[in-house]
Amino acid sequence: MRKGEIPVPYIVALILAVIVIAILGIWFFKSSGDTNTALNEQKCRAKLMAECVGKADDYNLNPYDYAECKNTDVAKGVRTCADL
Question: pTM surpassing 0.85?
Answer without folding.
Answer: no
